[in-house]
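User: I'm putting together notes for a lab meeting next week and I want to include a structural view of one of the chains we've been expressing. I don't have a solved structure, so I'd like a prediction I can at least talk through. The sequence is below, exactly as it appears in our construct file.
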Amino acid sequence: MRPYLLLALLLPGCTAADYAGVQGLIEVKRQFSDTEASVLVAAPCAMTYGAWTRLLPAQRDGVAALCGGEQPRGFDDALADVLTLRQAGLLPE
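Assistant: Thanks for the context. Below is the predicted structure for the 93-residue chain, given as structure tokens.
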């Protein structure tokens, strides 16, 4: 049990409205924490290729694990995409 919840339960004279107010604050904090966690997990997946290449191997493995095992796309991959699109006539020469 969270310490602040336990404190709220043990406070003498705590009314039902006080308890509901504390529960509301706890829910707001929980939602904030969940949002923060989702942003923190997504942030490494938006890393540039240059930043990724400067990571230590263990850090690269961690980023790959968070991002579904995908490594950032490099210049060669992007160049191959451009050449493919040009050959298909979808990009000007």
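A couple of points you could mention at the meeting. The helical segments are 3-10, 16-42, 49-53, 57-66, 75-87. The first helix runs from residue 3 to 10.

User: Perfect, that's what I needed.
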